[in-house]
């Protein structure tokens, strides 16, 4: 590129980032809505063959559902279409104060089982492969454990925290809560009805503080590199769309998972009910990230000890951040494709 072209491109990108509509408009994979209700929008991505096996994508709560379809080259949904699968997506939408009474049970007993049954029915009654990211992976495993009769063929959990003893910073939090057993934090979350989207976004950015500090220099250094700025913009769009947690859900996460590590012990106590990971009776693929500062790889690998009822549990690793391991074509996506092919 000539100097004149470089200057022109840099000026155009500077205008787009500062005053315009951005470098690159979102380009979501075309999809069809199958059903729509609060916190359970179910869509099927277009283009799959009629006999393609179904894959239901299960997002976590504090992330937008488009995490599986960030952009054409960072889209797990498009990859699944490319390899002959029929991807579906369940979208929980925004979480508000009115949703403060929603807890783990809402997803385990209602939202996810309903989505699984609908997807199976849309594929002529065939069982469904589940792929979840972060806490979405925990939710799908607990859903399968709570009802082994659901039409599930396999489960893939990417960056799923399956032991909070291995999570960064949790041991320090536990020491801080010994004075009151965590009651102050629980009361505060209950009072405000949950964890707001703004707090979720701040916390996520804090895990990549160096990126935020270097951002001005990064933009200046890449002002003529439209492709690099477009990828940066994609991550910004993702971070700016993070929703929050309902109060009841986060209090359960705080008390049963962070403080008591139920999930690491293999049995989650929800009121009088006990859900054991050992009751998962389908093959499982776990993917952890050695460089993931949100869910340590050891927290994912711990599932090898608790998923004792699964006929097979594979554990693989992928490079990158918490989001990066979800978009890792050469590792995570390749593991998933092989795992699903081996089931046939």
Number of E-state strands:
12
Q: Strand share of the residues? A: 15-25%
Mean pLDDT: 87
Lateral strand order in the biggest sheet: 1-2-4-3-5-6-11-12
Helix-strand sequence: HEEEHEHEHEHHEHHHEHHEEEHHEHH
Number of helices: 15
Radius of gyration: 21 Å
From the N-terminal CA to the C-terminal CA, the straight-line distance is: 49 Å
Largest sheet: 8 strands, mixed
- Strand-pairing-aware structural class: alpha/beta
Morphology call: globular
Residues in helix, %: 40-55%
List low-pLDDT spans.
Answer: none
Write structural notes for this entry.
An 8-stranded mixed sheet has the order 1-2-4-3-5-6-11-12, sandwiched between helices. A two-stranded antiparallel ribbon has the order 7-8. The chain is α/β, with parallel strands linked by helices and 344 residues long. The relative contact order is 0.14. Helix 6 (183-192) packs antiparallel against helix 10. It contains 15 helices and 12 strands. It is 45% helix and 16% strand.
